[in-house]
Each structure stands twice: as structure tokens, then as C-alpha cells.
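anyone seen this seq b4? input:
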Amino acid sequence: MDQQSKILEGKYPAKAHCAKVASYLQTRSANAAGNAVIYLEGQKTVLIEDNDEPRPFRQRRPFFYLSGCSLPDCHLIYELSTSTLTLFIPDLNPDSVIWSGLPLVPPEALERYDIDACFPNSQLPARLSSLAQKDSDIRFYIKDIPRDAFLSLAQTTVSTDTKLLHPAIDECRVTKDSYEIALLRKANAISTIAHTAVLHAIPTARNEQELEAAFVAACISNGAKHQAYHPIFGSGQNAATLHYQHNDQPLSARKNILVDAGAEWDCYCSDVTRTMPLSGSFDPDSRAIYSLVQQMQFTALALLKAKVTWETLHIRAHEVAVQGLLDLGILKSGTAEELMKERISVAFFPHGLGHYLGLDTHDTGGNPDYVDQDTMFRFLRIRGEIPEGAVVTVEPGVYFCRFIVEPYLKDERTRRFIDEGVLERFWEVGGVRIEDDVLVTKDGYENLTTAPKGIEEMEKMMAGGC
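predicted toks r here
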């Protein structure tokens, strides 16, 4: 058994996460140093409108982070003074057993989860009231529930804080422990199988949706029943739309397909993008752009380590893009320094270099500034230094999106930097993005993504190689 499997045989470290959040609260609030309690509600069962079927369930990520429980209609209490974690689960309903079978019961929950106690939900109000009556100075840290509704549930008028718990959990989620990293490795391993399945399916596929089906089928057959996000299968010029959603267009007469898709494993996400040639090999223009994006990623990864600023990597990727577009003749009439100052590369690389990854695809703690007036930084999902133990995506791209590029061609100040004649050749390339999930270490990084991305490697696989 490999190390990853050994780690995942254990319980999700909910109590360690609770302690991490408690420490954050205690460093920022004197009230948390005394008898304080964290209270969270899990996602509730919600019926589809005008229907008796429930909506697809997705556990609230803060709740999962502090419990490891992905069941609906649950609650948790964490007592900071005793480091005690208590989970409350739905009561047994005989009528629902007829349709859905026996639910999880408290003794089973104690075996499954890293908790100290488990009770049915019917005992929750009494437990909250007991905690409040035991200490008049107790303070509850709550999230996503109106204060009055909580006080009614607790049948008390205790002090509550509705503001600090959310940022506390968000910040603590940035750095990952060994169990979380193992979950991310597992999600990536399944995504590698699925991306490989897409490569093998391309020669006979006729529509984007067939390739999406191949990806999702590979995930499900390997135990990952949920996608981390809506898959993106954009062929031809559809690849120039960053979050293309339709996945239903024919593949004929198109050069490439951009596949941005990732499996989810036990609520943890992978986020992997590959750009693949639909003919089995890249044509010269597509190969040139793909090689440029590879160089952008290699350059950013070479700089990545703990305490480096994300802006530094992002700028360096843009510098590589500018020089590459100059070499191809798409950009002209200026030095690389001048083109960087004019932000011309934003027309072809409009998004940020990546984002944090974990329980959410665009994970918490990045502190973006979406009102930044500098177009090169406006869509960065991470700002500032990257800590050791964070997992980030590194996903540079070059796109030929008419909606984005054409305003630059109409602006007298910027049009002189773009050779429209050369550009005309590249519209059908669409867009190229390469994205890997990367663990940041003290002196560098570890790439968690192993999906094929080398030009020769992908072309060989599509030709029937291993």
C-alpha cells in the first residue's frame, strides 16, 4: 500500500482543523481566550421547486473542514476550552427508512469521523442551552445563521460573534495538512486517468459532448462521482472563452480542443487543463502557441516557492508571453519593456496565473482585488506572498478571443503594437491553456498533476501509443 492510501485509511483530521481555527480566533479576539464555542450548520436538504426531489447535495465547505462529515442536515459544536467536538446528525425517521434505508446513527458516526461525541439533532437545543447556562460569559462564534434564529435555538441571550469565524476558516484553509494533500493527490490521479481517456477518444469523437462524456465516465468508474466544477470542453474558437460551458459543438474542421476538467474526491478538488490537437498532431501555429504557453508555465514554476509573491510569478509569465508573441510577429513596433508597460499582453492573457485549490476549486484566502485599476492584476485570485503548504494552480494561457482583442485593434494607442495580418492566422488556434495543481514547499514546489501535457507524449497517445 502506498503512503497516500495509508494516510487516507485514517480519519479526516477534523479536530486538528478545529484547533487551528480556534488558535486563529484566540489571536484575534480576547473573548475567544475564555469559554468560547464554535457553532456551525451543515447544508440542509432543499427540495427542487415544485417537486418532491431534493436538489443535488453539496456540503458547506466550512462545515466539512471542521467535521469531515458530508451528510445533509447536520450541526457541530466545538468547545475551545476543552477541545471537544460534537456532531449532531438527523434523527431516525421510520417513514424515510422505507424509501432510503437506515441512516447513519451516532455510534457509527463516532467510528467514521474524528469527533468526541455524536447526538441526534433533537438534542441540539438542549445542549446549546446547557452550555449557555453553565457559563454566563460564554461566547458563541457562528456563521451563516441569523443571530436571532440562533438565540431562539439556544433559548438564551448569550453573546455571539457573526463576523470572525468566516475569515478564520478561510485563512486556515489556505495551508494543507498531509491528509488534505493526499485527498488532492487522489483527485489528481483520477483526473489523469480521465484526461488520458479523452486523448484516446479524440480520434473517433465527433462532438465536444462525447469527450466530456469520456471524461466524466472515467471519473465515475474510478470512484469520483462528482466533478470539482462544470467541465470545459471548448473546441476551435470556443477555447478562447475562458469558462466555456456549452460543450455541444461539432469537432469537424477545428484544430484543437481545450479541456479544463477535474475530479472531486471526498469534497477536495482537482483543477487540470490540457489543450489537445483534434487531428492527432498540432499544426505549426498551434504548436508555436502551445510551446509558448509551456514556456510561460515552466518559467513561473521555476520561481515558485514559499514566501514568493504571486504578482512576481504573474508578471514573469506576462514577460514570457510578450517576448513569444513578438517572436511570432503577432506583436510589433515596440520593445518588450514598452509592450509590458502598455499591458498589451492582457489582450491575449487576460486572467490571473492561478488560484488556491482545496475544498473549493477557487479556494479561499487569496484576497483578490477585483477593482484594481491595473488590468494586468485585476483578475488575480491570489495577492501577496504564498505560504509553505498552500496548493495553487499554475495555469498560463494565450487566447485569440475577438471580443477581447478587437478593442485593442480599434484603439489608436494600442493597434500599432499588433500585426493584424499575422494575427489573422491564429484566430482558429482558439486558445491554449496548461494548468497543473502544485504544492508549495519551502524551497520550491511539488507538482501533484501527472496528466500528459508534452506535445510528443500527447500525439503518441492519440496515435495509439501507451
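The first helix runs from residue 3 to 8. The chain has a mean pLDDT of 95. kinda curious what u guys think
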